[in-house]
Amino acid sequence: MNRFKRIEELVFKWICGIASYSLIGILGFIIIIIFVKGFNALSLEMIIEAPKGGYYYGGEGGVLNAIIGSLYIALGSSLLAIIIGVPAALYINVHLVRYKKIQNIIRYLLDALWGIPSIVYGAFGFSLMLYLGMNASLLAGIITVALLTTPIVIRTFDDVLDTIPKGLQEASFALGSTRSETAFKIIFKQGFSGFITAALLAFGRGIGDAASVLFTAGYTDLIPKNLDEPAATLPLAIFFQLGSPNPLVRERAFAAAAILTIIIMIISILARILSNKYSKLNLNN
Amino acid sequence: MTLDIIKNIENSEILLTNCIFEEVEKNETILKIENLNVYAKKEHILKNINLEIPKNKITVLLGPSGCGKTTLLKSLNRLTDLYKELKVSGHIFIENDDILASKQNTSVLRQKMGLLSQRPYPLPYSIYKNVAYGIKLKGIKNKKLIEFNVEKKLREVGLWEEVKDRLHSSPESLSIGQQQRLCLARGLAVKPRIILADEPTSALDPVSSKIIENLFKELKKHYTIILVTHVLRQAQRLADHVVFMNYGEVIEQGSSKEIFSNPQTSQLKEYLIEGN
Question: Residue B241 phi/psi, 5° resolution?
Protein backbone atom coordinates (compact mmCIF):
# COMPACT_ATOMS: atom_id res chain seq x y z
CA MET A 1 0.00 0.00 0.00
CA ASN A 2 1.46 3.32 -0.93
CA ARG A 3 1.47 6.36 1.27
CA PHE A 4 -1.50 8.09 -0.32
CA LYS A 5 -3.71 5.03 0.06
CA ARG A 6 -2.72 4.73 3.68
CA ILE A 7 -3.67 8.31 4.44
CA GLU A 8 -6.90 7.89 2.52
CA GLU A 9 -7.79 4.84 4.59
CA LEU A 10 -7.00 6.65 7.81
CA VAL A 11 -9.02 9.76 6.91
CA PHE A 12 -12.10 7.79 5.97
CA LYS A 13 -11.83 5.62 9.02
CA TRP A 14 -11.84 8.75 11.17
CA ILE A 15 -14.72 10.38 9.31
CA CYS A 16 -16.87 7.27 9.64
CA GLY A 17 -15.86 6.82 13.25
CA ILE A 18 -16.68 10.40 14.21
CA ALA A 19 -20.03 10.20 12.45
CA SER A 20 -20.98 7.04 14.34
CA TYR A 21 -19.73 8.00 17.74
CA SER A 22 -21.12 11.53 17.62
CA LEU A 23 -24.58 10.01 17.14
CA ILE A 24 -24.10 7.92 20.23
CA GLY A 25 -22.78 11.03 21.94
CA ILE A 26 -25.89 13.02 21.05
CA LEU A 27 -28.13 10.27 22.38
CA GLY A 28 -26.14 10.17 25.58
CA PHE A 29 -26.31 13.95 25.84
CA ILE A 30 -30.11 13.98 25.48
CA ILE A 31 -30.52 11.31 28.10
CA ILE A 32 -28.19 13.06 30.51
CA ILE A 33 -29.99 16.41 30.08
CA ILE A 34 -33.39 14.84 30.66
CA PHE A 35 -32.30 12.93 33.71
CA VAL A 36 -30.27 15.72 35.26
CA LYS A 37 -32.99 18.32 34.76
CA GLY A 38 -35.76 16.01 35.86
CA PHE A 39 -33.89 14.23 38.61
CA ASN A 40 -35.30 16.25 41.49
CA ALA A 41 -38.86 15.74 40.34
CA LEU A 42 -38.48 12.02 39.64
CA SER A 43 -40.23 10.20 42.41
CA LEU A 44 -42.54 7.29 42.97
CA GLU A 45 -45.36 9.79 43.30
CA MET A 46 -44.79 10.81 39.66
CA ILE A 47 -45.51 7.33 38.43
CA ILE A 48 -48.28 6.12 40.68
CA GLU A 49 -50.47 9.17 41.10
CA ALA A 50 -52.70 11.19 38.85
CA PRO A 51 -52.48 15.01 39.09
CA LYS A 52 -54.25 16.51 42.05
CA GLY A 53 -55.71 19.99 42.15
CA GLY A 54 -53.24 22.68 41.11
CA TYR A 55 -50.70 20.15 39.86
CA TYR A 56 -49.74 22.35 36.95
CA TYR A 57 -49.04 25.20 39.33
CA GLY A 58 -46.78 23.11 41.52
CA GLY A 59 -49.46 21.14 43.40
CA GLU A 60 -49.24 17.50 44.35
CA GLY A 61 -49.70 14.46 42.17
CA GLY A 62 -48.05 12.65 39.29
CA VAL A 63 -48.46 11.84 35.64
CA LEU A 64 -50.05 8.41 35.97
CA ASN A 65 -52.96 9.69 33.86
CA ALA A 66 -50.56 10.41 31.00
CA ILE A 67 -48.63 7.16 31.41
CA ILE A 68 -51.82 5.10 31.33
CA GLY A 69 -53.28 7.20 28.51
CA SER A 70 -50.13 6.81 26.42
CA LEU A 71 -50.01 3.07 27.02
CA TYR A 72 -53.68 2.73 26.09
CA ILE A 73 -53.21 4.71 22.91
CA ALA A 74 -50.01 2.90 21.95
CA LEU A 75 -51.50 -0.54 22.64
CA GLY A 76 -54.81 0.20 20.96
CA SER A 77 -53.29 1.79 17.90
CA SER A 78 -50.66 -0.95 17.54
CA LEU A 79 -53.38 -3.58 17.73
CA LEU A 80 -55.40 -1.77 15.09
CA ALA A 81 -52.34 -1.24 12.91
CA ILE A 82 -51.44 -4.94 13.15
CA ILE A 83 -54.97 -6.04 12.32
CA ILE A 84 -54.86 -3.94 9.16
CA GLY A 85 -51.15 -4.12 8.43
CA VAL A 86 -50.40 -7.82 8.65
CA PRO A 87 -52.98 -8.97 6.12
CA ALA A 88 -51.95 -6.08 3.88
CA ALA A 89 -48.27 -7.04 3.97
CA LEU A 90 -49.13 -10.70 3.34
CA TYR A 91 -51.41 -9.68 0.48
CA ILE A 92 -48.64 -7.67 -1.15
CA ASN A 93 -46.23 -10.59 -0.92
CA VAL A 94 -48.44 -13.58 -1.63
CA HIS A 95 -51.43 -12.51 -3.68
CA LEU A 96 -49.65 -9.81 -5.62
CA VAL A 97 -46.60 -11.95 -6.27
CA ARG A 98 -47.44 -11.95 -9.98
CA TYR A 99 -47.93 -8.21 -10.23
CA LYS A 100 -44.57 -6.57 -9.69
CA LYS A 101 -45.78 -3.18 -10.91
CA ILE A 102 -48.72 -2.99 -8.51
CA GLN A 103 -46.44 -4.14 -5.70
CA ASN A 104 -44.05 -1.31 -6.42
CA ILE A 105 -46.80 1.31 -6.62
CA ILE A 106 -48.25 0.19 -3.28
CA ARG A 107 -44.83 0.21 -1.67
CA TYR A 108 -44.15 3.69 -2.99
CA LEU A 109 -47.47 5.00 -1.66
CA LEU A 110 -46.88 3.43 1.73
CA ASP A 111 -43.45 4.99 1.91
CA ALA A 112 -45.05 8.34 1.14
CA LEU A 113 -47.61 7.77 3.92
CA TRP A 114 -44.78 6.90 6.27
CA GLY A 115 -43.18 10.23 5.51
CA ILE A 116 -46.23 12.40 6.15
CA PRO A 117 -45.72 14.46 9.33
CA SER A 118 -47.85 13.40 12.23
CA ILE A 119 -49.51 16.81 12.61
CA VAL A 120 -51.13 16.17 9.23
CA TYR A 121 -52.52 12.91 10.55
CA GLY A 122 -53.66 14.85 13.59
CA ALA A 123 -55.50 17.36 11.42
CA PHE A 124 -57.00 14.58 9.33
CA GLY A 125 -58.05 12.66 12.44
CA PHE A 126 -59.59 15.82 13.83
CA SER A 127 -61.73 16.44 10.74
CA LEU A 128 -62.68 12.77 10.63
CA MET A 129 -63.69 13.01 14.27
CA LEU A 130 -65.87 16.06 13.63
CA TYR A 131 -67.39 14.43 10.56
CA LEU A 132 -68.36 11.36 12.61
CA GLY A 133 -69.65 13.57 15.41
CA MET A 134 -67.16 12.22 17.93
CA ASN A 135 -65.51 14.09 20.78
CA ALA A 136 -61.82 14.18 21.52
CA SER A 137 -61.47 10.76 23.09
CA LEU A 138 -59.30 7.73 23.59
CA LEU A 139 -60.94 6.08 20.59
CA ALA A 140 -60.31 9.04 18.29
CA GLY A 141 -56.70 9.15 19.48
CA ILE A 142 -56.25 5.43 18.87
CA ILE A 143 -57.70 5.65 15.37
CA THR A 144 -55.55 8.65 14.45
CA VAL A 145 -52.36 7.10 15.76
CA ALA A 146 -53.24 3.84 14.01
CA LEU A 147 -53.49 5.76 10.72
CA LEU A 148 -49.99 6.98 11.40
CA THR A 149 -48.52 3.60 12.37
CA THR A 150 -50.24 1.29 9.89
CA PRO A 151 -47.92 2.20 6.99
CA ILE A 152 -44.98 1.59 9.34
CA VAL A 153 -46.27 -1.86 10.24
CA ILE A 154 -46.97 -2.78 6.62
CA ARG A 155 -43.64 -1.62 5.22
CA THR A 156 -41.51 -3.02 8.04
CA PHE A 157 -43.18 -6.42 7.84
CA ASP A 158 -43.24 -6.29 4.05
CA ASP A 159 -39.50 -5.62 3.92
CA VAL A 160 -38.83 -8.84 5.78
CA LEU A 161 -41.38 -10.83 3.79
CA ASP A 162 -39.79 -9.59 0.59
CA THR A 163 -36.53 -11.34 1.51
CA ILE A 164 -38.22 -14.74 1.77
CA PRO A 165 -37.16 -16.78 -1.26
CA LYS A 166 -39.81 -17.48 -3.84
CA GLY A 167 -38.88 -21.15 -3.66
CA LEU A 168 -40.57 -21.42 -0.27
CA GLN A 169 -43.82 -20.10 -1.70
CA GLU A 170 -43.54 -22.46 -4.62
CA ALA A 171 -42.87 -25.35 -2.25
CA SER A 172 -45.96 -24.44 -0.28
CA PHE A 173 -48.13 -24.16 -3.39
CA ALA A 174 -46.71 -27.39 -4.77
CA LEU A 175 -47.95 -29.18 -1.66
CA GLY A 176 -51.42 -27.99 -2.54
CA SER A 177 -51.74 -25.16 -0.04
CA THR A 178 -54.11 -22.40 -1.03
CA ARG A 179 -52.95 -18.78 -1.10
CA SER A 180 -54.36 -18.08 2.35
CA GLU A 181 -52.69 -21.16 3.82
CA THR A 182 -49.44 -20.14 2.21
CA ALA A 183 -49.79 -16.60 3.50
CA PHE A 184 -50.79 -17.28 7.09
CA LYS A 185 -49.20 -20.66 7.81
CA ILE A 186 -45.95 -20.40 5.88
CA ILE A 187 -45.01 -16.84 4.96
CA PHE A 188 -46.23 -15.27 8.20
CA LYS A 189 -44.35 -17.88 10.23
CA GLN A 190 -41.20 -17.45 8.19
CA GLY A 191 -41.30 -13.67 8.55
CA PHE A 192 -42.23 -13.68 12.22
CA SER A 193 -39.16 -11.72 13.28
CA GLY A 194 -40.28 -8.94 10.94
CA PHE A 195 -43.71 -9.01 12.51
CA ILE A 196 -42.25 -8.50 15.99
CA THR A 197 -40.10 -5.62 14.80
CA ALA A 198 -43.07 -4.02 13.03
CA ALA A 199 -45.35 -4.33 16.05
CA LEU A 200 -42.84 -2.86 18.47
CA LEU A 201 -41.89 -0.08 16.09
CA ALA A 202 -45.55 0.86 15.83
CA PHE A 203 -45.85 0.78 19.60
CA GLY A 204 -42.80 2.98 20.04
CA ARG A 205 -44.07 5.48 17.51
CA GLY A 206 -47.56 5.43 18.99
CA ILE A 207 -46.46 6.09 22.54
CA GLY A 208 -44.18 8.96 21.62
CA ASP A 209 -46.19 10.95 19.14
CA ALA A 210 -47.59 14.28 20.30
CA ALA A 211 -48.97 16.02 17.24
CA SER A 212 -51.44 13.35 16.19
CA VAL A 213 -53.08 13.18 19.62
CA LEU A 214 -53.08 16.90 20.25
CA PHE A 215 -56.61 17.48 18.92
CA THR A 216 -57.92 13.96 18.88
CA ALA A 217 -57.27 12.40 22.27
CA GLY A 218 -57.73 15.61 24.23
CA TYR A 219 -56.24 16.00 27.69
CA THR A 220 -57.52 15.24 31.13
CA ASP A 221 -56.29 14.70 34.63
CA LEU A 222 -58.42 11.59 34.93
CA ILE A 223 -57.47 8.11 33.93
CA PRO A 224 -59.80 7.12 31.08
CA LYS A 225 -62.18 4.28 31.87
CA ASN A 226 -63.98 4.24 28.54
CA LEU A 227 -63.06 4.56 24.89
CA ASP A 228 -65.14 7.71 24.55
CA GLU A 229 -63.45 9.54 27.40
CA PRO A 230 -60.57 11.88 26.64
CA ALA A 231 -57.09 10.66 27.51
CA ALA A 232 -53.88 12.37 28.52
CA THR A 233 -50.60 11.37 26.90
CA LEU A 234 -47.01 11.68 28.02
CA PRO A 235 -45.80 13.81 25.10
CA LEU A 236 -48.59 16.31 25.76
CA ALA A 237 -47.94 16.19 29.50
CA ILE A 238 -44.36 17.18 28.72
CA PHE A 239 -45.53 19.87 26.33
CA PHE A 240 -47.94 21.51 28.77
CA GLN A 241 -45.58 21.39 31.73
CA LEU A 242 -42.62 22.67 29.79
CA GLY A 243 -44.53 25.85 28.99
CA SER A 244 -45.04 26.67 32.64
CA PRO A 245 -43.24 29.64 34.23
CA ASN A 246 -42.88 27.62 37.43
CA PRO A 247 -39.44 25.92 37.56
CA LEU A 248 -40.83 23.02 39.63
CA VAL A 249 -43.36 22.24 36.90
CA ARG A 250 -40.67 22.48 34.22
CA GLU A 251 -38.62 20.03 36.21
CA ARG A 252 -41.56 17.67 36.22
CA ALA A 253 -41.71 17.96 32.44
CA PHE A 254 -38.20 16.57 32.27
CA ALA A 255 -39.09 13.82 34.71
CA ALA A 256 -42.05 12.88 32.45
CA ALA A 257 -39.66 12.90 29.49
CA ALA A 258 -37.37 10.55 31.38
CA ILE A 259 -40.27 8.18 32.03
CA LEU A 260 -41.23 8.23 28.34
CA THR A 261 -37.62 7.62 27.32
CA ILE A 262 -37.34 4.67 29.68
CA ILE A 263 -40.55 3.13 28.30
CA ILE A 264 -39.32 3.55 24.72
CA MET A 265 -35.93 2.08 25.58
CA ILE A 266 -37.53 -0.95 27.16
CA ILE A 267 -39.60 -1.40 24.01
CA SER A 268 -36.55 -1.13 21.73
CA ILE A 269 -34.54 -3.60 23.76
CA LEU A 270 -37.51 -5.97 23.80
CA ALA A 271 -37.78 -5.60 20.02
CA ARG A 272 -34.11 -6.44 19.62
CA ILE A 273 -34.25 -9.51 21.83
CA LEU A 274 -37.44 -10.90 20.34
CA SER A 275 -36.47 -10.30 16.75
CA ASN A 276 -33.01 -11.81 17.32
CA LYS A 277 -34.59 -14.83 18.90
CA TYR A 278 -36.90 -15.43 15.96
CA SER A 279 -34.43 -14.60 13.21
CA LYS A 280 -32.03 -17.17 14.66
CA LEU A 281 -34.71 -19.80 14.20
CA ASN A 282 -35.00 -18.93 10.55
CA LEU A 283 -31.35 -18.70 9.68
CA ASN A 284 -30.32 -19.45 6.09
CA ASN A 285 -33.70 -18.97 4.64
CA MET B 1 -54.96 -51.37 18.74
CA THR B 2 -56.04 -48.66 16.34
CA LEU B 3 -52.47 -48.44 15.12
CA ASP B 4 -52.51 -52.14 14.22
CA ILE B 5 -55.68 -51.68 12.23
CA ILE B 6 -54.17 -48.70 10.46
CA LYS B 7 -51.06 -50.69 9.69
CA ASN B 8 -53.14 -53.53 8.31
CA ILE B 9 -55.06 -51.15 6.12
CA GLU B 10 -51.85 -49.52 4.90
CA ASN B 11 -50.27 -52.90 4.16
CA SER B 12 -53.22 -54.13 2.19
CA GLU B 13 -53.22 -50.84 0.35
CA ILE B 14 -49.59 -51.39 -0.60
CA LEU B 15 -50.32 -54.96 -1.68
CA LEU B 16 -53.23 -53.79 -3.72
CA THR B 17 -51.26 -51.04 -5.42
CA ASN B 18 -48.43 -53.47 -6.10
CA CYS B 19 -50.88 -55.78 -7.87
CA ILE B 20 -52.08 -52.89 -9.96
CA PHE B 21 -48.55 -51.87 -10.77
CA GLU B 22 -47.65 -55.35 -11.95
CA GLU B 23 -50.64 -55.38 -14.22
CA VAL B 24 -49.79 -52.14 -15.93
CA GLU B 25 -46.08 -52.75 -16.20
CA LYS B 26 -46.05 -52.19 -19.94
CA ASN B 27 -45.49 -48.56 -20.91
CA GLU B 28 -48.66 -46.95 -19.76
CA THR B 29 -48.82 -43.20 -20.15
CA ILE B 30 -49.62 -41.18 -17.05
CA LEU B 31 -49.14 -37.70 -18.46
CA LYS B 32 -49.83 -36.49 -21.94
CA ILE B 33 -48.70 -33.08 -23.12
CA GLU B 34 -50.31 -31.70 -26.28
CA ASN B 35 -49.26 -28.57 -28.14
CA LEU B 36 -47.86 -26.88 -25.08
CA ASN B 37 -46.65 -23.36 -25.78
CA VAL B 38 -45.28 -20.94 -23.24
CA TYR B 39 -44.54 -17.31 -23.96
CA ALA B 40 -42.79 -14.84 -21.70
CA LYS B 41 -43.79 -11.47 -23.11
CA LYS B 42 -42.52 -11.79 -26.67
CA GLU B 43 -40.16 -14.63 -26.06
CA HIS B 44 -41.32 -18.10 -27.07
CA ILE B 45 -39.95 -20.27 -24.27
CA LEU B 46 -41.61 -23.59 -25.02
CA LYS B 47 -42.45 -24.35 -28.62
CA ASN B 48 -45.20 -26.78 -29.37
CA ILE B 49 -44.28 -29.52 -26.93
CA ASN B 50 -45.89 -32.91 -27.45
CA LEU B 51 -44.88 -35.56 -24.98
CA GLU B 52 -46.07 -38.72 -23.33
CA ILE B 53 -44.64 -39.51 -19.93
CA PRO B 54 -44.58 -43.23 -19.14
CA LYS B 55 -45.92 -44.38 -15.80
CA ASN B 56 -43.59 -45.66 -13.09
CA LYS B 57 -40.52 -44.72 -15.04
CA ILE B 58 -37.91 -42.05 -14.61
CA THR B 59 -38.24 -39.59 -17.45
CA VAL B 60 -35.25 -37.29 -17.70
CA LEU B 61 -35.58 -33.86 -19.26
CA LEU B 62 -32.13 -33.22 -20.58
CA GLY B 63 -30.67 -30.16 -22.18
CA PRO B 64 -28.44 -27.13 -21.75
CA SER B 65 -29.32 -24.40 -19.24
CA GLY B 66 -32.05 -22.07 -20.40
CA CYS B 67 -33.61 -24.53 -22.82
CA GLY B 68 -36.97 -24.47 -21.02
CA LYS B 69 -36.74 -27.64 -18.92
CA THR B 70 -37.68 -25.94 -15.67
CA THR B 71 -40.50 -23.99 -17.30
CA LEU B 72 -41.88 -27.25 -18.69
CA LEU B 73 -41.73 -28.76 -15.21
CA LYS B 74 -43.46 -25.76 -13.67
CA SER B 75 -46.23 -25.87 -16.26
CA LEU B 76 -47.00 -29.40 -15.13
CA ASN B 77 -48.23 -28.32 -11.70
CA ARG B 78 -49.19 -24.84 -12.77
CA LEU B 79 -46.55 -23.03 -10.77
CA THR B 80 -46.41 -20.94 -13.92
CA ASP B 81 -49.53 -19.25 -12.49
CA LEU B 82 -47.22 -17.40 -10.12
CA TYR B 83 -45.54 -15.58 -12.98
CA LYS B 84 -47.73 -13.05 -14.68
CA GLU B 85 -45.48 -12.73 -17.70
CA LEU B 86 -45.85 -16.41 -18.60
CA LYS B 87 -48.63 -17.24 -21.04
CA VAL B 88 -49.34 -20.93 -21.24
CA SER B 89 -51.46 -22.60 -23.89
CA GLY B 90 -52.12 -26.20 -24.89
CA HIS B 91 -53.21 -29.26 -22.97
CA ILE B 92 -51.61 -31.41 -20.31
CA PHE B 93 -53.64 -34.47 -19.46
CA ILE B 94 -53.18 -36.43 -16.30
CA GLU B 95 -55.49 -39.42 -16.55
CA ASN B 96 -57.74 -37.59 -19.01
CA ASP B 97 -57.96 -34.55 -16.78
CA ASP B 98 -56.66 -31.36 -18.37
CA ILE B 99 -54.31 -29.62 -15.97
CA LEU B 100 -54.35 -26.37 -17.91
CA ALA B 101 -58.15 -26.08 -18.01
CA SER B 102 -58.86 -22.85 -16.16
CA LYS B 103 -61.58 -24.22 -13.91
CA GLN B 104 -59.26 -26.78 -12.35
CA ASN B 105 -58.86 -26.82 -8.59
CA THR B 106 -55.15 -26.14 -8.49
CA SER B 107 -54.71 -27.37 -4.90
CA VAL B 108 -56.07 -30.83 -5.70
CA LEU B 109 -54.15 -30.88 -8.94
CA ARG B 110 -50.85 -29.91 -7.38
CA GLN B 111 -51.21 -32.66 -4.83
CA LYS B 112 -51.00 -35.16 -7.65
CA MET B 113 -47.41 -34.06 -8.02
CA GLY B 114 -44.63 -33.66 -5.51
CA LEU B 115 -42.06 -30.98 -6.24
CA LEU B 116 -38.40 -31.22 -5.39
CA SER B 117 -36.60 -28.00 -6.22
CA GLN B 118 -32.95 -27.13 -6.81
CA ARG B 119 -32.31 -26.49 -3.17
CA PRO B 120 -34.38 -27.54 -0.18
CA TYR B 121 -36.97 -25.12 1.16
CA PRO B 122 -38.08 -26.55 4.49
CA LEU B 123 -41.19 -24.94 5.92
CA PRO B 124 -40.63 -22.82 9.05
CA TYR B 125 -41.67 -25.66 11.32
CA SER B 126 -40.03 -28.61 13.06
CA ILE B 127 -38.92 -31.68 11.10
CA TYR B 128 -42.03 -33.55 12.23
CA LYS B 129 -44.41 -30.74 11.31
CA ASN B 130 -42.83 -30.35 7.89
CA VAL B 131 -44.03 -33.80 6.95
CA ALA B 132 -47.25 -33.55 8.94
CA TYR B 133 -48.17 -30.33 7.11
CA GLY B 134 -48.88 -32.15 3.87
CA ILE B 135 -50.79 -34.91 5.62
CA LYS B 136 -52.97 -32.37 7.39
CA LEU B 137 -53.64 -30.62 4.09
CA LYS B 138 -55.11 -33.89 2.93
CA GLY B 139 -57.71 -33.44 5.65
CA ILE B 140 -56.35 -36.10 8.00
CA LYS B 141 -56.85 -35.01 11.60
CA ASN B 142 -56.33 -38.19 13.60
CA LYS B 143 -53.11 -37.68 15.55
CA LYS B 144 -52.11 -41.35 15.52
CA LEU B 145 -52.64 -41.60 11.80
CA ILE B 146 -50.55 -38.48 11.20
CA GLU B 147 -47.79 -39.82 13.43
CA PHE B 148 -47.84 -43.13 11.63
CA ASN B 149 -47.69 -41.47 8.23
CA VAL B 150 -44.88 -39.10 9.20
CA GLU B 151 -42.77 -42.07 10.24
CA LYS B 152 -43.71 -43.97 7.09
CA LYS B 153 -42.76 -41.11 4.79
CA LEU B 154 -39.52 -40.43 6.63
CA ARG B 155 -38.65 -44.10 6.33
CA GLU B 156 -39.51 -44.02 2.65
CA VAL B 157 -36.75 -41.44 2.09
CA GLY B 158 -34.37 -43.17 4.50
CA LEU B 159 -34.35 -40.29 6.94
CA TRP B 160 -36.16 -41.82 9.89
CA GLU B 161 -33.16 -43.36 11.61
CA GLU B 162 -31.25 -40.09 11.29
CA VAL B 163 -33.92 -37.80 12.71
CA LYS B 164 -36.08 -39.93 14.99
CA ASP B 165 -34.47 -38.46 18.12
CA ARG B 166 -34.88 -34.85 17.04
CA LEU B 167 -38.20 -34.79 15.28
CA HIS B 168 -39.18 -31.59 17.00
CA SER B 169 -36.08 -29.58 16.28
CA SER B 170 -35.73 -27.20 13.36
CA PRO B 171 -34.84 -28.61 9.92
CA GLU B 172 -32.01 -26.08 9.93
CA SER B 173 -30.06 -28.53 12.07
CA LEU B 174 -29.99 -31.02 9.19
CA SER B 175 -27.45 -31.07 6.37
CA ILE B 176 -28.58 -29.77 2.99
CA GLY B 177 -28.80 -33.35 1.70
CA GLN B 178 -30.98 -34.37 4.62
CA GLN B 179 -33.12 -31.29 4.15
CA GLN B 180 -33.63 -32.24 0.53
CA ARG B 181 -34.80 -35.70 1.59
CA LEU B 182 -37.07 -34.09 4.17
CA CYS B 183 -38.62 -32.00 1.40
CA LEU B 184 -39.06 -35.18 -0.62
CA ALA B 185 -40.78 -36.87 2.33
CA ARG B 186 -43.01 -33.81 2.71
CA GLY B 187 -43.91 -34.04 -0.96
CA LEU B 188 -44.66 -37.75 -0.71
CA ALA B 189 -46.95 -37.10 2.24
CA VAL B 190 -49.66 -35.66 0.00
CA LYS B 191 -49.65 -38.96 -1.92
CA PRO B 192 -48.67 -37.69 -5.34
CA ARG B 193 -48.66 -39.78 -8.49
CA ILE B 194 -45.74 -37.97 -10.01
CA ILE B 195 -42.55 -36.54 -8.55
CA LEU B 196 -41.26 -33.44 -10.30
CA ALA B 197 -37.59 -33.03 -9.57
CA ASP B 198 -35.87 -29.87 -10.76
CA GLU B 199 -32.13 -30.52 -10.62
CA PRO B 200 -32.59 -31.85 -7.09
CA THR B 201 -28.93 -32.67 -6.56
CA SER B 202 -27.39 -29.47 -7.90
CA ALA B 203 -26.80 -28.04 -4.42
CA LEU B 204 -25.72 -31.33 -2.87
CA ASP B 205 -22.40 -33.01 -2.26
CA PRO B 206 -21.64 -36.25 -4.16
CA VAL B 207 -22.61 -38.56 -1.30
CA SER B 208 -25.97 -36.87 -0.73
CA SER B 209 -26.57 -36.85 -4.49
CA LYS B 210 -25.95 -40.57 -4.61
CA ILE B 211 -28.49 -41.13 -1.84
CA ILE B 212 -31.11 -39.12 -3.74
CA GLU B 213 -30.37 -41.01 -6.95
CA ASN B 214 -30.73 -44.37 -5.23
CA LEU B 215 -33.96 -43.16 -3.67
CA PHE B 216 -35.34 -42.34 -7.09
CA LYS B 217 -34.57 -45.84 -8.33
CA GLU B 218 -36.49 -47.17 -5.35
CA LEU B 219 -39.37 -44.70 -5.61
CA LYS B 220 -40.12 -45.34 -9.25
CA LYS B 221 -41.82 -48.56 -8.21
CA HIS B 222 -44.62 -46.47 -6.78
CA TYR B 223 -44.29 -43.10 -8.46
CA THR B 224 -43.60 -41.65 -11.85
CA ILE B 225 -40.55 -39.42 -11.74
CA ILE B 226 -39.83 -36.52 -14.05
CA LEU B 227 -36.29 -35.37 -13.49
CA VAL B 228 -34.75 -32.21 -14.88
CA THR B 229 -30.99 -32.34 -15.03
CA HIS B 230 -28.09 -31.03 -17.02
CA VAL B 231 -25.72 -33.56 -15.55
CA LEU B 232 -25.33 -36.05 -18.36
CA ARG B 233 -23.93 -38.82 -16.21
CA GLN B 234 -26.84 -38.57 -13.81
CA ALA B 235 -29.21 -38.89 -16.74
CA GLN B 236 -27.36 -41.96 -17.94
CA ARG B 237 -27.48 -43.52 -14.50
CA LEU B 238 -31.16 -42.92 -13.86
CA ALA B 239 -33.15 -42.48 -17.03
CA ASP B 240 -35.61 -44.95 -18.45
CA HIS B 241 -36.93 -42.43 -20.90
CA VAL B 242 -35.05 -39.37 -22.10
CA VAL B 243 -36.38 -36.14 -23.57
CA PHE B 244 -33.67 -33.95 -25.05
CA MET B 245 -34.58 -30.29 -25.31
CA ASN B 246 -32.87 -27.29 -26.79
CA TYR B 247 -34.09 -23.72 -27.41
CA GLY B 248 -37.54 -24.60 -26.08
CA GLU B 249 -38.10 -27.50 -28.40
CA VAL B 250 -38.08 -31.24 -27.96
CA ILE B 251 -35.26 -32.28 -30.25
CA GLU B 252 -35.30 -35.96 -29.62
CA GLN B 253 -36.85 -38.45 -27.26
CA GLY B 254 -36.75 -42.15 -26.66
CA SER B 255 -35.59 -44.84 -24.30
CA SER B 256 -32.35 -44.30 -22.48
CA LYS B 257 -30.65 -46.85 -24.70
CA GLU B 258 -31.76 -45.27 -27.95
CA ILE B 259 -30.82 -41.77 -26.93
CA PHE B 260 -27.43 -42.45 -25.45
CA SER B 261 -26.14 -45.12 -27.81
CA ASN B 262 -27.77 -44.04 -30.99
CA PRO B 263 -28.49 -40.31 -31.13
CA GLN B 264 -30.15 -39.17 -34.33
CA THR B 265 -29.81 -35.41 -34.44
CA SER B 266 -26.59 -33.49 -34.67
CA GLN B 267 -27.59 -31.28 -31.69
CA LEU B 268 -27.90 -34.26 -29.39
CA LYS B 269 -24.68 -35.81 -30.70
CA GLU B 270 -22.86 -32.58 -29.98
CA TYR B 271 -24.37 -32.35 -26.50
CA LEU B 272 -23.42 -35.91 -25.68
CA ILE B 273 -19.83 -35.43 -26.84
CA GLU B 274 -19.40 -32.19 -24.91
CA GLY B 275 -21.10 -33.57 -21.82
CA ASN B 276 -18.78 -36.55 -21.65
Answer: -130, 135
